Amino acid sequence: MHPLKTLIAITLGSLLLSNAQATPAAASVSSSSQRIWISLGDAAYQQLQKLPRLKARSEASVAALASGPAPALMPGASLEGAAALEQVHLVEVDEAGLADLSEAVHQSLRRCGGYLFHASKEDGLRSLQRLSRPRQQALLAASKPSYVIDQQALVTPMLSQMQASNIGQTILDLSAHTNRYYTSSGGVAASNWLKTRWSNLAAGRSDITVEQFNHPGWAQKSVIATFKGTDNASELVVLGAHLDSIAGANTGESTRAPGADDDASGVASLTEIIRSLVASNFKPRRTLKFMAYAAEEVGLRGSQEIAKSLANQNANVVGVIQLDMTNYKGAANDIYLFSDYTDAGQNQFLSQLIQTYLPTLKIGTDRCGYACSDHASWNAQGYATSMPFESSFAADNPYIHSANDTYANSGNQADHSLKFARMALAYAVELGADGPAVTPPADKTENFSGNLTLNQTRSFGPFKLKAGGTLKASTTGTGDIDLFVKKGGAASTSSYDCKSDGNTASESCSVNSATNTEVYVLLKGYSAGSYRLTVTYTPQ
Ligand code: BES
Ligand code: ZN
């Protein structure tokens, strides 16, 4: 079967058509099998072009397309980061030829296929285009979270009661299915099993719902557990992993594909987070969504449908984390933060969370170099994502996508996964605990007054400052008062963003912030005196 039927090559900022020439004979070739659209990176595509059978088909179709109107293509959100340097190709293939395609890429590049599925040509073009203007505006208006770490009192006890053995049991339960392929009965059964498992964990909590997300194109459903936020429910935080497994491109009903690491380990990590949050009776202020995606292994299909559906509703998703392969420690560092198709600010936050809550862990960075997991589906919709990974890309688990991706081949333990589960729980609680950002009126002021003795300090705040706004703190009074102001954490006489320490009680400091943040104020009596502190917000 000739997989390639039609091809469009896209580079950053411009549309390139292949230099191929059409021949009438080739142009008349038609296919009887089902055609689907995929996009893939240049490296993978270059390899495919070396296959003579594939080449003939694609040349004909490029010429056919060149005669039509050229779409105005722009660099896409899905091409962000270093991966953007690769040219991306949108290709129509016979679905039956996907096996050849995966095999060719696997053999020549020694990595997995890395293609994205698109429901149609238009759909493929759209996802390679820059985000639409209304969507960009919606995102600008959306809340950027404050990445202040201030929930130690809640997080620390939860971390200590999380157990590797629970994660290990869930990995065993999931990998006991013959496979979890997106069209197989095992894939369906695993989805039903997980829905029951998560529902049981949430029993007795009316604020938690567990649902299956139906995908019209195939049988396996995604599973979504939602903790509804108490007073900031419209802001969503998404924690994801993929439910499906695969063992080679010809995976069928009875192919053994345990997928213990890829990605029962991610789903099991989410399951332990849910268990711990419920055990601690945690009620988030933002809405938390735990997602086990169907059909990741066949082009991120489940997560694309879900991310698009939320983007179409203009959902205010403030952060997304993907756990795909967490239990095989293949390299020296514990957690590798992948840089491509992810958000640098959120990655920095994760790094801070690890340093705060798991200080013994070693952090690395790496990249896939292509849209390797479901975080890319959210990145394509403009949302902030992260993908913390079990190893460097080169030293990942060699057993994945085969019958040997078993719990035994991850050492019959889940200690590595536990690190990821703990980090992601800290992420869920720190982001989940934030209330709505305040938009104070321009003239909003708050006043505080009191007395200070020599060297006495007094703290005020946190004052919530919305992205783009300015906060001014000023004092009047008697004696000599010094003023210290800090964003994102408590101010001290040695740690501040602004200090005002003249030799009277009249001091003034202004701070502004591009993201939502929390501002802390400290007053110190340089000599005994009285103060009146005025805090004024000015929105953007
Ligand atoms: N878990 C893998 C991705 C992965 C593998 C990341 C090895 C890092 C190292 C994922 O399930 C997968 O196989 N993804 C596909 C891409 C997808 C778009 C079909 C892949 O890598 O080919
Ligand atoms: Zn995976």
Give the SSE map:
Layout: E1 4-11, E2 14-16, H1 24-27, E3 35-41, H2 42-49, H3 52-66, E4 88-94, H4 98-109, E5 115-118, H5 121-128, H6 133-141, H7 152-160, H8 164-175, H9 185-201, E6 208-213, E7 222-227, E8 232-242, H10 260-279, E9 286-293, H11 301-312, E10 316-322, E11 335-338, H12 344-357, E12 363-366, H13 375-380, E13 385-386, E14 388-389, H14 415-432, E15 445-452, E16 457-465, E17 470-478, E18 481-487, E19 498-500, E20 507-512, E21 517-525, E22 529-538
Parallel strand pairs: 8-9, 8-10, 10-13, 11-12
Antiparallel strand pairs: 1-2, 1-4, 3-4, 3-5, 6-7, 7-9, 11-14, 15-22, 16-21, 17-20, 17-22, 18-19, 18-21
This protein binds ligand BES and zinc ion (ZN).
Q: How much strand content do the residues show?
A: 25-35%
Counting structural domains, the number is 3
Q: Could you say which overall geometry the principal axes of the C-alpha atoms support?
A: elongated
At the fold tier of CATH, the topology name of the largest domain is: Aminopeptidase
Q: What is the CATH C level class of the largest domain, in words?
A: Alpha Beta
Pfam family, one: PPC
Domain Peptidase C-terminal archaeal/bacterial: 463-519
Domain Peptidase M28: 223-415
GO biological process, one term: proteolysis
